[in-house]
What we know:
Layout: H1 3-22, H2 29-47, H3 59-82, H4 85-107, H5 114-132, H6 143-169, H7 173-229, H8 234-241, H9 244-254, H10 262-280
Helix pairs in contact: 1-7, 1-9, 2-7, 3-6, 3-7, 4-5, 4-6, 4-8, 5-8, 5-10, 6-7
Amino acid sequence: xxxxxxxxxxxxxxxxxxxxxxxxxxxxxxxxxxxxxxxxxxxxxxxxxxxxxxxxxxxxxxxxxxxxxxxxxxxxxxxxxxxxxxxxxxxxxxxxxxxxxxxxxxxxxxxxxxxxxxxxxxxxxxxxxxxxxxxxxxxxxxxxxxxxxxxxxxxxxxxxxxxxxxxxxxxxxxxxxxxxxxxxxxxxxxxxxxxxxxxxxxxxxxxxxxxxxxxxxxxxxxxxxxxxxxxxxxxxxxxxxxxxxxxxxxxxxxxxxxxxxxxxxxxxxxxxxxxxxxxxx
Length: 281
């Protein structure tokens, strides 16, 4: 894998972890999600005059991605509403790379060698282990929450493949990203108004600057990923994005002073091993 692409996607994962840390302000999931979406939409609107119009062939994929993203937000919100983070997050983030790899190789004909597959499996296992955080009781699983978590993973898989193809057809992956985030913001306004307008309006009044900063980081993070999926296999890029969990753990230990447990160290080593395999594949 090209070193520049590899480094760019790891930087995107760091941005992803950063905006997730930035937006943790005690809001409910709907308000947080909408705040970030509107922040990224504002940045996208400002960037529209500076990018070209995506090619016509990419628009069905772009529209499909907007719809899938709303499904993703809905599934994620419901999974967090009905279940514990320690149950939901590992399932959603750990299974998504494997689903994406299976979908990309089956339906769009991408080829991965044995080392690439080994790297994706090791990285996904490390993400799953790290996400557990070693401190939550997972013996009593909430089947409804787990169902929504798997649905979340499926939507992550779907929008990753859709955006990888759409970005390749757009002529400019940057233009595709800008219009995608503008579309998601518009769709999220409608979704939030239907679900709980009061909570969202309160969040906008109090945290609009943080939402703008987080939205900018989100757009930068996923924009890099969309570009990377135009020059490298979608399955590989989708797996590398999940290293945001590792960066998030580092932020938690260094800045939030969370304990450095042995489980976290083992999970980090698995992720690094997966990264090495992917880099060499």
